Amino acid sequence: MIFGDSCLARGGEREQLLCQGWEATTSDPSRRRGHRIHVQTGGHLVIFNSRFSFFISPYLWTALLLAAPLSGIAQAPDSQEEGASADGVVHELYDIVTFPAGTTPDWDQLRALFLPEAVVVLRSSREATSVFSLEGFVQDWLRFIEGSNVEETGFTERIIRTHTTVFGDIAHVWVLYEAEIPGWGRPPQQGVDSFQLVRREGGWKIASITNEIPTPDRPIPEVLREVG
Length: 228
Fold this sequence. Notes:
By secondary structure, this protein is α+β, with helices and mostly antiparallel strands. It folds into two domains: 7-29 and 78-224, Roll (Nuclear Transport Factor 2, Chain: A), CATH 3.10.450; 36-73, no CATH class. It has helices spanning 13-24, 58-73, 79-96, 107-111, 134-147, 150-153, and strands at 36-41, 44-49, 53-56, 114-123, 129-133, 156-167, 170-180, 189-200, 203-212. The strands form two sheets. The protein has a six-stranded mixed β-sheet with strand order 5-4-9-8-7-6. β2 (44-49) and β3 form a beta hairpin.
């Protein structure tokens, strides 16, 4: 994500960083569950739970074991599909904040991609970062669009490369992107975003974003470099 903070009020840091970045950028390619205890005793399985306890006979236990592969394993989601889904949410966010002249992003559509409690940490100057709530993140975009007349020029933030790791209901997505204000006459600036996502009710939601800008002394992470 492009740089944050109330930078316009501090003399246009967002624009300054976009300008300065060309020189710095390197080309280097609940729910609370009751406690449960299982005890095998006398050929019977005893299950103790904070709400209840009961016995399972050996015959019923065998039947449950035989049925498990049919219900559990067969329905297990494919990890590659999970990764594509989490990665898809990230791509959707970049699509939303890329907009042509005369338009602005759909902010409700953007909000829907996040957890309400999400945190966004963006590079706001060469030495500082700024921390935002979800709503603060939206407001920072609004300040940027208004203060830089971006509605008249449009804005582009294009994904170059991603690297996604999924473990159960959490996912991490690295993103190498290029940001550009059309008409500025400068090449796009590269940045790196790190996304944490969680799966809620069958869908992926963004829990956090952290942002950094590559420099010659701080090259692009290896997982995002072009192979070959």
